[in-house]
Amino acid sequence: MHDTKTKRLMIIGADAAGMSAAAEARRFDKDLPIVAFDRGGAASYSQCGLPYLVGGVVTDTSRLIARTVEQFAAQDITVHLGHEVTAIDPARGLVRVRELPTGMGHDEPYDRLVIATGASPVPPAVPGLDLEGVFVLDVLEDAIALQTYIRRHRPRHAVIVGGGYIGLEMAENLVRLGLSVRLIQRGEHLFPSVDFDMAMPLAQELERHGVDLSLCDSVLEACEGAHGRVAHVHTNTGELPADLVLLAIGVSPNVVLAQTAGIACGPTGAIAVDDHQRTNMPGIFAAGDCAEHWHRLLRRPAWVPLGTTANKQGRIAGRNAAGGDAAFGGIVGTAITRLFDLEIGRTGLSEREAQAAGIVCVSTTLDSTDHAGYLPDAHPLTVKLVVEMGSGRLIGAQAVGRAGVAKRIDVFATALYAGLTLADLPQLDLAYAPPFNSVWDPLQVAATSLLRQGAIRWGPNQ
Amino acid sequence: MHDTKTKRLMIIGADAAGMSAAAEARRFDKDLPIVAFDRGGAASYSQCGLPYLVGGVVTDTSRLIARTVEQFAAQDITVHLGHEVTAIDPARGLVRVRELPTGMGHDEPYDRLVIATGASPVPPAVPGLDLEGVFVLDVLEDAIALQTYIRRHRPRHAVIVGGGYIGLEMAENLVRLGLSVRLIQRGEHLFPSVDFDMAMPLAQELERHGVDLSLCDSVLEACEGAHGRVAHVHTNTGELPADLVLLAIGVSPNVVLAQTAGIACGPTGAIAVDDHQRTNMPGIFAAGDCAEHWHRLLRRPAWVPLGTTANKQGRIAGRNAAGGDAAFGGIVGTAITRLFDLEIGRTGLSEREAQAAGIVCVSTTLDSTDHAGYLPDAHPLTVKLVVEMGSGRLIGAQAVGRAGVAKRIDVFATALYAGLTLADLPQLDLAYAPPFNSVWDPLQVAATSLLRQGAIRWGPNQ
To answer: Measured between alpha carbons, how far is B181 from B175 in angstroms, rounded to an integer?
Structure first.
């Protein structure tokens, strides 16, 4: 490892991970030269806000931008947008940069490097996806292009391919814009991040808001109508009108640049990093969606690309690249989304994931309400707990309901981080007043119910 | 200690702690004779729901009752309402019971005893408090009497004495009924459960809803008008119209029965118990508002009477009294209330409490929003963290805002229970989506801000 003072920090990718790295490096070393390159046209914006920008809930694009290039410049952080890094030469400490408008290339020296190249949508291998009117929602430019297309061509029939976060959030936002929306999912399990039993209310919620649902279906071809724009799609079950198609079938880490330079990827396919975000190449760090993420429960690297993790890893990479010493504590697999009036979230491992990891577990599902049932507006809340058989170690939790999901998921995420067991949950001194919950929080009722099933020791004895 | 099988479990007090004990004892031993006595007229109801019953938000009294006497009877648990236990004779294993309607007394044998006599309001030493129209809100009968009085006499000017939970919640509920409400608080600090800086928005919220506030004032006398009913009160600052007076200045534990029988109280004045809820008297347990509560942070008993703790301790007392082995994990000092549109909560120790306990601490207060600021309906949320100087041990958190308070308090309560440090908070894998929070939860932003102040080590190194 280098032990000299960092001379020039370079960052590839100016979004969540990259700019968190830059800002943290600046905090640590106020004199360090810091430069960031990004092929896109905006730095440091909220990718998770894009569906709401398309839907018009966020009315001003600039509100999604956490810090502008000018604001970074004021901190002496130089951000070059529209600049793609095409090669890294670790031996010489150089990267090859191409200015996108002109195609001109030049070399830039670095001393320490943070790779934060993110992830990109995986296009399905289907003809017709190059037609106008077929979109992905990855970067800010995608959202703006989609918005522009909708305003200009006023499409009526949207087909969304994929029932994960982006697919669900875009279904809500396209309905908000008045489009007729159909969501196509390959299997029968929407939002597979939660177990099938917990995901069931999603289909009802989509239908309640007029979204047509094609489960166990997939798109075979997108077909051209007038003006070279998409007009319909063929699926396994027939033909559907579609003057707007959104592909939301998942992402993969952008690792080609790193791999070509000899930087190792892990078994997940993302860049392998240690707890200091160091790659196998001295002086080169990676963070965010392009890197692996240590999973506290699995005790091995996973790949779960999320903004929260990108921000955390970015800070740690930036601090260490600047000469500091910080370690990433790992993820526990937390995720949440809202679909119309329904909140759904998970943390830890789902039952399916736990089984896939060879963990022998028990689970319980509890139907409750988000606050005291005797007050008005108490909404149904379903909580599912997954616990390791015998040991009682908490493995995961999921929740779905109209309110109060994030609260329960976050309590559980904290419990998982701390390594609590099932027997600890009923002991938690959680806040109670009738407008907020019942005297035993549903999470505690679910835990107690599992404890009483006898697969796990009852009494805690702190 | 007894080591023979429990033969007859008796419970004094049939509310949260007592009936939790009864139910848990029944789960543990399906044949154990269980009998409970209560001087009141209802068992196992939600005391915390009483303000909402008075305010008409809860329209049906029966909805506050978790389980009726008949439902307990179906589980072979005998509940005698209107029966006051007037003496305990540990030497002979007897209690003296008085039937309240008739005044008739008789002895009842017990084998194991759970004392769950609760707490009662402390009346201020002020003349005129025996007038009709002066109320406390302690038991269900109080709420019904208050409701009846309001319906019958249609009072117009309510004076509430005391600015804790009950005072605040009743201010909201009396406003809801159309009364003109004035709240009198001895000092200038409403809801002293949180620090003064965090309690400030309460005064504005009261005023915004038309509640008159008399701070640094106290009632000297309640005065009679027509028909023997209260008509006005004299305070330090003058005379106020008051055809309804609610006293809400705090409670003290009901321990005379226990003390007379030789059962020891601790330094807090409540019944001393070990982690199994055992008193100093073999075979006699205590739980809930009449007992002390182990404080995980202070590492000593405290007295914080709350329904959540009563339920927890009741279960543990019941299980152990029936022959089981369970321990209470202790409280961390969590509390929450809602005042009109404002939520306010705390957990751990407030800065004032930490100082009183001799803990050298630092604090930070952060003004943020409950979810992504670029979405509509993002409401201000203020979070305060208190951390032990040097060690970085979490000491307490407080939050106030229009939404999302309970969520943050519960995360922090879980972190306190688990003994996490300040450096752990930014590492927590909390749920994020724009409708729920920002990519860094305000709680994490506050923690990071404190870490950066340098009083505490930055990087966690799990």
So the answer is: 7
